[in-house]
Amino acid sequence: MGGSPTDALLERHAEALRLFGERVHAVREDQWGAPTPCTDWTVRDLVNHVTGEQLWIPPLVTEGRSVEEVGDALSGDLLGEDPAGVWDGAAAAAHAAFAEPGALDRTVSLSYGPTPGSAYCSELTTDCVVHAWDLSRAIGADDRLPDDLVEASIKQVMPYADGLAASGLFAPPVDIPPGADAQTRLLAMLGRAS
């Protein structure tokens, strides 16, 4: 990893984007409607969600816009006829926005309030990591996650893990088996059984 915490965060973000992108490119045509561990989402819904998360980054981080200012411009189906191509463009633009000098030090206006750019980057890195597991499971790909991304995601999730289910966005935590590895612990905190 890079020498500074900023470099390390940007490298983790890039690695998480690559991981998710590899899975997007592995989706077969007959798998886009398949179910995922996210019970309300198909493979296409899941990829659309994570792609949308990346598309929000340039307006919020680079342009300094608020969620209200962006409005519903990034709602609905964003993938069109070329889901993998749209993902590639969104991922590249997202990483470029976070990598701009000073971007991680900026305050970003998110739906839940002003947030440091570094915290937003960490949150979306974790989102990519966990959803890479979801997508892997849905398409029958290798679902092992890189150890460094798992450890960073655990650190990101731990402070608010107890309240995630109450948000309605996550399933209740799953019991962590004795001796569980880091990936199993991470997934269990987020309501996923590995």
Characteristic terms for this protein:
194 residues; 54% helix; 4% strand; two-stranded antiparallel ribbon; mainly alpha; Four Helix Bundle (Hemerythrin (Met), subunit A)
Q: Describe it for me?
A:
With 194 residues, the protein is mainly alpha-helical. The protein has a single domain (5-144), classed as Four Helix Bundle (Hemerythrin (Met), subunit A) (Up-down Bundle). Helix content is 54%, strand content 4%. The chain contains seven helices and two strands. It has helices at 5-26, 43-62, 67-70, 83-99, 117-139, 147-157, 182-189; strands at residues 107-110, 113-116. Strands 1-2 form a two-stranded antiparallel ribbon. Helix 6 (147-157) packs parallel to helix 7 (182-189). It starts with a helix and ends in a 5-residue tail after the last helix. The model has no long low-confidence stretch (mean pLDDT 91).
